[in-house]
Amino acid sequence: MVVLPVPAEVSVILLDVEGTTTPIAFVKDILFPYIKENVREYLQTHWEEEECQQDVSLLRKQAEEDSHLDGAVPIPAWSGSGGDDPQRTIQAVVDNVCWQMALDRKTTALKQLQGHMWRAAFAAGRVKAEFFEDVVPAVRKWREAGMKVYIYSSGSVEAQKLLFGHSTEGDILELVDGHFDTKIGHKVESESYRKIASSIGCATNNILFLTDVTLEASAAEEADVHVAVVVRPGNAGLTDDEKTYYSLITSFSELYLPSSA
Ligand SMILES: CSCCC(=O)C(=O)COP(=O)(O)O
Ligand SMILES: [Mg+2]
């Protein structure tokens, strides 16, 4: 078996979700279709609620920033007054969400709405999150060895908590010391990793980041974070240069903690 020693200075393991802890297929075939199939009904049902209006405002702001992009869908303002028909705005939000999802965009606005929509599906037991079988045993072992374990995903913190709270392994939220999402910055920007270290209260070189995306690994490395690229069934392929350059693991069990020997 391949063994990747964890540097002695590492005390925090930072985990990506999609493609690292969780199959991409679960996200693409279960979570995302749920949004596309239910977004219109969700908006119709929750339109008058404060949370839904905040989500729409954030999407509208994002749409303004995206106006220069090919195919971007603007979201007209809605006065909220009785005479104003919300259906035109709802249609625009549906089109905007579908456009963003077709491009697999990771905007905070899209991810916030998705997190709110998944809440009902997880709470009703209609969806349970999938984790690769090596994930839970490895995380338990790391924590027993004194490591802290944090999550950093483009999925909102609320969505992350839904996944870890309602998984096929049961409620595994207690295995996580904390969560980060794009509110701290995008995963392809090195500054995000400096902010995460500062928020945890450690140096960047105390962190080992596990991700399937080399652009994220590169950004983390630029901030002096240790990285390993996770190769899982269904993940995007890596170039020969990437395979040579990065430390690769196919299972969390391949990480070796000298302190737990
Ligand atoms: C954790 S919420 C569901 C997944 C999701 O929406 C997403 O964008 C995952 O991105 P990641 O950064 O975990 O690869
Ligand atoms: Mg990922």
From TrEMBL:
Cofactor binding mode and count: Binds 1 Mg(2+) ion per subunit.
Record-linked InterPro entries: Enolase-ppase_E1 (IPR023943), ENOPH1_eukaryotes (IPR027511), HAD-like_sf (IPR036412), HAD-SF_hydro_IA (IPR006439), HAD_sf (IPR023214)
UniProt-annotated binding residues for Mg(2+): 16, 18, 212
Keyword terms: Amino-acid biosynthesis, Cytoplasm, Hydrolase, Magnesium, Metal-binding, Methionine biosynthesis, Nucleus
Binding site for substrate: 153-154, 187
Function: Bifunctional enzyme that catalyzes the enolization of 2,3-diketo-5-methylthiopentyl-1-phosphate (DK-MTP-1-P) into the intermediate 2-hydroxy-3-keto-5-methylthiopentenyl-1-phosphate (HK-MTPenyl-1-P), which is then dephosphorylated to form the acireductone 1,2-dihydroxy-3-keto-5-methylthiopentene (DHK-MTPene).
Designated name of the protein: Enolase-phosphatase E1
Species whose genome carries this gene: Mustela putorius furo (European domestic ferret)
